[in-house]
Amino acid sequence: MKQLDLGKEKIGKLLMAFSVPCIISLVVNALYNMVDQIFIGWGVGYLGNGATNVIFPITVLCMAFALMFGDGASAYLSLKLGEKKEKEAQAGVVNGIIASIIISVVLGVSILIFLPNLITIFGGTDTLRTYALDYGYIIVIGIPFMMIATTLNSIIRADGSPKYAMISMIIGAILNIILDPIAIFVFDMGIKGAALATIISQFVNFLINAIYLKKFKTIKITKESFKPSFKIMRNVGMLGISSFITQMAIVIVITVENTLYNIYALSSKFGAEIPITVHGIVMKINMILTSIIIGIAAGSQPIVGYNYGAKKYERVKKTLKLVLGISTIVSTISFILFQTIPEALISIFGSGDELYNEFACLTFRIFLMLTICNGIQIASGIFFQAIGKPTKSAFITLSRQILFYTPLAIILSKFYGVMGVLYAGPVADLFAFMISVIFLIMEVKKLNKSERKDDLPKEEQAIIEEKANIIITINREYGSGGRYVGKLLAKKLGIRLYDKDLIMMVSNESGLSASYIEENEQNVTGKLLANFNSQYYNNLSNDDNLFIAESNAIKEIAKKGSCIIIGRCADYVLKDEKNVFKIFLYSDDENKVARAVKYYGLEEKTALKQINKINKARQKHYNYYTGQDWKDLDYYDFSINVDKFGVEKTVEMIEKMVVDCKVKI
């Protein structure tokens, strides 16, 4: 990013630079999940693969907790480093690791005790049970290493070492590939050998990541650092909750599928074992191609986000068009492969009988019939994340699995049995595709509308500018009475004041909670993006989502009518608009303290210290996002010491300035 100009460099070159590492990371992770099944298929048979598919939801369940604390600790690290609170950043990372260790041990012991019951819950049949128990009891031993390694992987990326995290994962995957055939074929250990190879690989991955604890760039971790705090663990977990939900959605879908295959097994010539086995294998093959699409779209995130923030909407649209085009090509290739050579694809995982091959062909050709639409759906979900609209992004991402597929599979299976589960796939893909297209069309129209003014002839632009709304932005020191000035001024001018009510608007826009916004809207993280995320596409930090969402809300407010906006970098966000008055209000320390004690309930002894701390946070936040000095009075149209003239007189002076400009309110 230091070498490439996101606002000027060719889109194709940028996309290549950012997407390739993402694709490698995601594909390696997908292959990690496939290796066992390939060798098990040849060494044990398809029933062995069926058993691994029954155990797979347990692995994903553990992964959900690992990522919750890993991604949460990553976000916490960035937040606290941005606030220059290194000790708190250290505490967040350490407690994320501690939480992962505790949960991994609890889950490991619980799964060992209840594994037979869990196998039943996740669709294991009597035929698959023996294989699943042999595989599961060994896999459970590696759960703590897998979970802690996953948590550390996320944190390492956030520390600015994505290559280290990727290499660690690649080493684990390669080791698994080497050990699988040795354990299965050389030592004739069957499915137990595959499980043993997996946990050895996970242990090595864990060791490599654990070594990094001594190499942290941004913080220093020592033995003395490991002081558990339930409060910090809870905060870290809440920051990673979206990762947890996404993984749990996978667990729910697999559980529903396997349960339905069990329910309707007697009425199907395929039984339950073949559908459970085949469906798991087919989805892992599809995961490889899906990972490529996610990697391409994830690589576009910094490009889209930067140019969207810079109002270079033409570049945003070009990037979106290129990503959608490439994603469609990849999904089209997937469609062709799935429809033309399903037998060859399933044969990679060993041989099966005639019914096994028949159901494999049906699954590829029916369940993945509309995989050609997936490129648009995945890319659009990431696009909305990049422009700071995570609510739409989450809806698009989860709509296919949770909103459409799961209920459709339950309904259609009642009428068509096992085949109903397959029919639900393309129907869900179609609905999710339609929603994605509708959202994209609406967003592109907004982008076009934003560009339209610049394309108008100068005469028409002048007319628009004459009729433009008047916007008064007020930046103010804490305790200067700026909020009260804004309230009185809005009343005198007969226009609306936006301050605290902006929080709910931004909450709806960003998907962040109102309490989080109120607490963090003046904070800044030190890093804008984590370069990799092995499970998901890259996400903007919560701070950046918040700033983008506030910017979008401010722009919408400015279109609706004349108004006054308190703080939130509104003067910068609207810098290209006409009839924007930039006001800065300040006061001397004595009056700020008096006002803060009287109106805000601060203690007189510590009031000045708290005031200075708040003002410093406001200045840092403003300088970070605008590149301007918050206290540079030459930048503003009007700056005044409120207490020198009094609140009422200050309001009169601002009103007179606005009226003298002869702008119609």
Top keywords for this entry?
665 residues, mainly alpha, Rossmann fold, 3 domains, 5-stranded parallel beta sheet, 5 strands, elongated
Describe this structure as you would to a colleague:
The chain has 665 residues and is mostly helical. It has three domains: 1-13 and 264-453, no CATH class; 44-255, no CATH class; 462-660, P-loop containing nucleotide triphosphate hydrolases (Rossmann fold, 3-Layer(aba) Sandwich). Helix content is 74%, strand content 4%. The chain has 26 helices and five strands. It has helices spanning 11-43, 46-82, 86-121, 126-141, 143-158, 162-186, 190-211, 230-239, 241-263, 273-309, 313-340, 342-347, 354-367, 374-386, 390-416, 418-455, 458-466, 482-493, 502-510, 514-520, 542-560, 570-573, 589-600, 604-626, 642-645, 647-660; strands spanning 471-476, 496-498, 563-566, 580-586, 638-641. A five-stranded parallel beta sheet has the order 2-3-1-4-5, with helices on both faces. Helix 1 packs antiparallel against helix 10 and helix 18 crosses helix 26 (647-660). The two termini are 44 Å apart. The model is unreliable at 459-466 and 524-541 (pLDDT under 50).
